[in-house]
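Because discrete structure vocabularies remain unfamiliar, it helps to consider an illustrative case, giving the amino acid sequence and backbone structure tokens:
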Amino acid sequence: MNSTPTHLERPTTNNEPFIVFDHIEKAFFGVKVLKGVSFGVGVGRIVGLVGENGAGKSTLMNLLGGNLQPDAGELRVNDQHYAPRHSNDARNAGIAFVHQELNLFPNLSIAENLYLTDFPRIRPAGTSGRADARRSGLPWINRRALRAQSVELLRQVGLDLSPDTLVERLPAGERQLVEIAKALGANARALILDEPTTSLSSPECERLFILATQLRDRGIAIIYISHALGDVLRLCNDLVVLRDGEMVGGGPTQDFTHDRLVSLMVGRQLNQLYPERRSPARPEPNETENVPGRKPALQVERVSQPGIVRDISFSLAAGEVLGLSGLMGAGRSELARILFGLDPCASGEIRLNGENLTGAPRRRIQRGLAFLTEDRRQEGLCLEASIADNMALVTLPSNSRSPVRFLDYTRINSAVKRMREAVKLSPKAADTQAVRTLSGGNQQKVVLGKWLLAKPKVLILDEPTRGIDVGAKSEIYRLIYQLADRGAGVLVISSELEELVGLCDRILVMRHGEISGEFRRDSFDREKILAAALHFLKK
């Protein structure tokens, strides 16, 4: 076999495999999670790896990255046996990862994150290249080279930022792009992109797709993992479908349709992603608080916080599912944090069921407000705690026995059991199992179950299906509708316009911290909604 081209060379053939999985098997505690998976990733090809959460995608990538070792089968890289024992082994083999959960140090600058393991050094006279500088033992970092190289990497991913900017000051989408730039800086011959678009706006996604295509044409082998099936069908040359640890489909992308992918992933036809509403609440214009059955659950009047949001006013009716759309940086998540009391509000009023809502998040939870954040791992879960402990966390005060307030574990366990069944949590997961061991979809169900146990009057959901497979999405939509049917108001923030159109009774659009448009279900128009996100519509 010919040697694989370097990352600036064009491939001699698009069929030359760089990575090969050959009958890979892996089990945890006697349960097989990979069952003889075999496929290859060609040089200069983008292979889409799809499957429901828990299908085995992450385990497969952990084997490739050296975090796990297979029980049977063989990995080959560049036609050589490959048995990594550490993440450095993958890096040395030319394999770079962009993980869904970002691996950046927020207290360091962008440049320091990009070159943390290989800073450019100042070379003494008589040396040439990094290797000589390292051998010389000189500890001084070449700051000029660091900035110049970082600027070039940021340019490649479309970020016009100073490399001296601290990562903690960046929103989630820009951090994702820094992570991608970091992988590009490693001169990778293979690139694994795990849900790379989850925090990106539409223009940033387009930039990523162009970049991925350019890298493919330069001879890099790419594994693209995503639940956005439309993106997979558009971008990838080949597809591999996993279900319950087995490869159930594979081949050129043109052999697949969206419906066929869904059927292979879930093992059944999923004809209706959005369940039917029994009693949708769709307030008409100029409705008042006195209209029977249409009382506002949440009222926001002229809420402002300098530099974040300005003069925000809207009403969320009881039983209504209200969507909040907008490009990254429009202020959607920031508004949600203000409503929940996590961030300050300089002016304006927030009313829950007609009464002013003030105080810390704990007070607002007691009043019936719930908030599912977009970052479930950092802000929504105690990863080392058990499933049961996470689900019961919000309702612990109501499950204690007076007067000494000992926890009533009988009531807690009963409530957790009911909620597990309601959210259809994987039956394989024990209540005592650490939540960090669950797939992304099951983790999201735990977070949602935690808030549903509290029986909120208003539930704010920030990117509720980010990184979630299509089957789990349908279950989460069902739970949202059930909550709304019981009379709660639901505010859904999502970067997926199709999700808002399919799920919501009404959609508000934000731009630069202000409401720039409002649309009701009978007038949903994707082009007009996007136009409102790009500029303010005329009243």
The radius of gyration is 25 Å. The first strand starts at residue 17 and ends at 28. The CA atoms of residues 26 and 32 lie 6 Å apart. The chain is about 30% helix and 25% strand.
